[in-house]
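Structure first, sequence second, as always.
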C-alpha cells in the first residue's frame, strides 16, 4: 500500500510535466502564427485607428477619421502607447501573446481556487489553451482575448469577493467596465450578469444591491472610456460617422429568418449547440451534489459563465454585423471555461485512477485537435481566409498558384512595391476592406476602385486572395481587369497592376460568397 501511494504521486508528476510540455507546444504555435500569418484586415484597421487616436500620422483611408470604438479600453491603451514608437505588426502581436499568457495564468489560478489540485488545474489550463478558435485571437493584434481575460477576472472576482462586500463589488464593476470598453460587444455580458443575479440569488437583497453597484460602475467605466476614445479620436456625428458606427455595431444589418438560421448554423459549426446543452445539463447535475466551500464557489462561477456566455451568444446571433468568428469568440470562451470548471469539479470528486485516465484521454484529444487546427492555419497562412472559412464564406481548397504558408512574405513584398510607387500614384482596390493590411505595411493610402477615369498621376490596382475567395468579383470586372490592367507583380493571389490610362470606368461588379452582397 505504501509503495502504491508513493507511485501515484510520481505518475501524477509525470503527467504534470506532459501537461506543461503540451501547453508549451500550443503557445509555441501561437508565436509561430504571429510570425507566419498575414496581417488581417480588421487587425490593420484597428491599429491604424488606434494610432490616429494617439496622434500618430497614418495614411488617410476608410479606416481613419472615425475612431474604432468597438475595440478600445486596455487594447487602446497598450497598442496606442506602442504605436507612438512603432507600428511594426510583430511588436503589436507580442502584446496579444502576452495577454494570452496572462489568460492562461489567470485560468490556472481560477481552477486552483475552485478546489482543483495542481494536476487538475494544469489539465484545465491546457484545455483553456485549446479553446476553439483561439489561434486567431492569440496570434493577431486584436482585442477579443484581452477582453475575455478581463471578463474572466471580473466574473471570478465577483464570485469569490464582489458578492460579499460593497467595496469588492465596486472592484468587480471596474473589471467588468474595462472588459466591455476593450470589446464593446461584451456589454451584453452585463445583461447576462444581471439575469444571473436575479435568478440565482433570488430574494437575496444584499447581493442584489451589490450586483446593482457592480453594473452601475461597469456602465460608468465603460461609457467614460468609450466616450473619451470617441472624443479624443476626433469622432464626429455626421452621416459618414453614423454609417460606419451602424455597420460596425450591426445596427444596419437586416436580419431575415434565413439570415438568422444561417448565422445559427455557423455558430453551431464552430461550437455545437449540443455541447452547450451538455455543459449546462452537466452543471445542473453537479449542483445536486453536496459541496465544499470551494466547490460551491466554483459551481457559482460555472453558472455565471454559462449565463453570460449564453447571453453573448444570443446577442451575437441578433446583433453581430456579420457572422464573424472573433465577434462570437468571447461567448465561446465563456462557455468553454464553464465546461472546464464543471469537468474538473467532477474529476476532483472521483479520485480513482480510472477517472484520472479518462481525464488524460480527454485532454489528449483536445490537445491533438487544437494542434491540428493550429498547424493547418500555419499551412494556409492567410488570416482573413482562415477567419472566413470559419463562417463558411471562403473555400477550403488552395487558390491556384498560391504558396501555402508564405502569404505573410508575399503580402510584405506587395506592400514594399506599393510603398516604392511614385508619390503621385493613386492606389486602388476592389475591396478597400481587404486592402487595409497594405495601408499599414506600406504607409500608403488605398482607395476604393475609381469608377470614373481620372486625370493626373498613374493608377494602380492591388489585389489580394480574399478578393477572389470572399468578395468574388463578377465576370464584368474580371473582363475589365484582363483588358485594361497589366500585372507588375503577382504571387499567391496577391497582385499589383498598372491601370491603362485609357481604361473606361470599372464596373461595380462584386458579390460575397456568403449572404452579404454589394
Amino acid at each position: 500500500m505504501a509503495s502504491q501511494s508513493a507511485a501515484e504521486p510520481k505518475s501524477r508528476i509525470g503527467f504534470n510535466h506532459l501537461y506543461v510540455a503540451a501547453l508549451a507546444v500550443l503557445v509555441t504555435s501561437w508565436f509561430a502564427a504571429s510570425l507566419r500569418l498575414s496581417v488581417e484586415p480588421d487587425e490593420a484597421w484597428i491599429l491604424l485607428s488606434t494610432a490616429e487616436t494617439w496622434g500618430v500620422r497614418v495614411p488617410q483611408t476608410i479606416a481613419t477619421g472615425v475612431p474604432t470604438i468597438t475595440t478600445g479600453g486596455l487594447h487602446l491603451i497598450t497598442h496606442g502607447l506602442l504605436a507612438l514608437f512603432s507600428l511594426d505588426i510583430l511588436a503589436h502581436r507580442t502584446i496579444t501573446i502576452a495577454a494570452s499568457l496572462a489568460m492562461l495564468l489567470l485560468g490556472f489560478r481560477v481552477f486552483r481556487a475552485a478546489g482543483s489540485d495542481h494536476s487538475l488545474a494544469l489539465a484545465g489550463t491546457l484545455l483553456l489553451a485549446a479553446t476553439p478558435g483561439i489561434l486567431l485571437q492569440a496570434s493577431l493584434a486584436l482585442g477579443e482575448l484581452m477582453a475575455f481575460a478581463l471578463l474572466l477576472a471580473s466574473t471570478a472576482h465577483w464570485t469569490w469577493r464582489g458578492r460579499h462586500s460593497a467595496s469588492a463589488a465596486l472592484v468587480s464593476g471596474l473589471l467588468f467596465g474595462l472588459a466591455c470598453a476593450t470589446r464593446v460587444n461584451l456589454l451584453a455580458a452585463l445583461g447576462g450578469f444581471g439575469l444571473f443575479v436575479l435568478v440565482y440569488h433570488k430574494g437575496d437583497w444584499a447581493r442584489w444591491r451589490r450586483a446593482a453597484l457592480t453594473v452601475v460602475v461597469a456602465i460608468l467605466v465603460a461609457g467614460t472610456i468609450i466616450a473619451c476614445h470617441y472624443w479624443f479620436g476626433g469622432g464626429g456625428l455626421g452621416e459618414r460617422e453614423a454609417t460606419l458606427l451602424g455597420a460596425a455595431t450591426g445596427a444596419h444589418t437586416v436580419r431575415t429568418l434565413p439570415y438568422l438560421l444561417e448565422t445559427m448554423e455557423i455558430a453551431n459549426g464552430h461550437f455545437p449547440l449540443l455541447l452547450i446543452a451538455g455543459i449546462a445539463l452537466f452543471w445542473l447535475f453537479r449542483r445536486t451534489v453536496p459541496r465544499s466551500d470551494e466547490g460551491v464557489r466554483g459551481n457559482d462561477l460555472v453558472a455565471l459563465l454559462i449565463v453570460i456566455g449564453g447571453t453573448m451568444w444570443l446577442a451575437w446571433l441578433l446583433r453581430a454585423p456579420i457572422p464573424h468568428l472573433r465577434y462570437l469568440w468571447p461567448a465561446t470562451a465563456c462557455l468553454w471555461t464553464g465546461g472546464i470548471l464543471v469537468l474538473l469539479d467532477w474529476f476532483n470528486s472521483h479520485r480513482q485512477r480510472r477517472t484520472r485516465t479518462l481525464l488524460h484521454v480527454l485532454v489528449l484529444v483536445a490537445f491533438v485537435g487544437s494542434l491540428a487546427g493550429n498547424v493547418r492555419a500555419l499551412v494556409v497562412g492567410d488570416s482573413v481566409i482562415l477567419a472566413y472559412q470559419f463562417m463558411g464564406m471562403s473555400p477550403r481548397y488552395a487558390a491556384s498558384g498560391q504558396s501555402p504558408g508564405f502569404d505573410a512574405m508575399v503580402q510584405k513584398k506587395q506592400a514594399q512595391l506599393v510603398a516604392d510607387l511614385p508619390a503621385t500614384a493613386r492606389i486602388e482596390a476592389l475591396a478597400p476592406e481587404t486592402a487595409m493590411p497594405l495601408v499599414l505595411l506600406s504607409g500608403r493610402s488605398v482607395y476604393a476602385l475609381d469608377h470614373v477615369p481620372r486625370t493626373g498621376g498613374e493608377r494602380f490596382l492591388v489585389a489580394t486572395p480574399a478578393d477572389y475567395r470572399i468578395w468574388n468579383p463578377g465576370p464584368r470586372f474580371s473582363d475589365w481587369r484582363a483588358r485594361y490592367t497589366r500585372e507588375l507583380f503577382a504571387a499567391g493571389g496577391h497582385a499589383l497592376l498598372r491601370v491603362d490610362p485609357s481604361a473606361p470606368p470599372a464596373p461595380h461588379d462584386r458579390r460575397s460568397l456568403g449572404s452579404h452582397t454589394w
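Margin note: The longest strand covers residues 485-491.
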